[in-house]
User: Fold 3-hydroxyacyl-CoA dehydrogenase/3-hydroxybutyryl-CoA dehydratase from Aeropyrum pernix.
Amino acid sequence: MAGEVKTITVVGAGTMGHGIAELAAIAGFKVYLADINIDILNNALQRIRWSLEKLAEKGRIRESVETVMSRITPIVSVRDGEYSEDLAKALSESDFMIEAIPEKLELKQQLFAFADKHAKETAILASNTSSLPITEIAAATSRPEKVVGMHFFNPPVLMPLVEVVKGEKTSEETVAATVDLAKKMGKQTVVVKKDVPGFIVNRILGRLMESACLLVERGGYTVVQVDATAKYLLGLPMGVFELADYSGIDVFYYVFEAMSRRGFRSAKCSIFEEKFKAGEYGVKAGKGIYSYP
Ligand code: CAA
Assistant:
């Protein structure tokens, strides 16, 4: 029986992890935020503070920035190449883990095996993966019925949707508890009933990006024409190429590569591949499809 969630450990403090920790703290949960070194954690805390100040300016949080920040405890998750005792202790106190580490199955399986050993028996172990099978992540644990996908979108504090993904053995109770947690974080949910590559959203985004890319590469349209059509005429919040730059060309590259390994076919189009190979990942690199001086 899943108990009431009071404490959450978020593992991974990057683009997604810091935003998820922020959301959890805004919702009133005690949060442990874990990553491999203190610099990453300090950077994450700075980003959370910046975001909370923005939300406070607009009256979108009820409490002070300091009150929300005080719920977050940063912890270093790895020492001398091993998961740390601090992480084990955080997990032993937590009712829910949300993993947001790099999209590598082996890494995630190692973390889930560790979490399985140290987390409360009742705790749910969730992955924010956008492309890897929940069933295979769950196979690293002795509690696959309590392993679930909880897929947020970038930026987590502003995007309203969470995909709750059922692995082959995920129980209905785990799905219900995860939906409930997402709602407490102010999100709308869609339950992805089958653990298919890309779930729902990235299957749609995959086709959108493929089409945009082909329109430029084979259709003779410019990137700006395609983006302007999507944004100003179709009414999407961002152009398709703009979105790739915003979330990271590397992020989408890995997501679509993982989906393709699992049988999601798409036409070959080289624009994103060339940018990826050149390290031009978008906004964070100062250059992607567009330039960010
Ligand atoms: N926290 C708080 N405030 C933030 C913020 C954050 N993390 N990020 C931006 N803001 C603020 C901005 O600073 C700005 O504030 P001011 O008005 O004071 O200047 C305000 O929000 C509005 O932002 P913008 O002016 O930049 O523009 P916007 O109205 O377009 O909103 C957006 C930004 C919400 C990101 C919107 O453009 C959008 O919805 N874009 C699409 C994003 C999307 O599709 N994400 C999903 C990507 S796919 C993914 O994540 C999954 C995967 O598996 C790869």
About this structure: The mean pLDDT is 96. Residues 51, 54-55, 130, 153-155, 157-159, 202, 237-238, 243, 247, 251, 255 surround acetoacetyl-coenzyme A (CB under 6 Å). The chain has twelve helices and ten strands. Residues 32 and 73 are 5 Å apart (CA to CA).
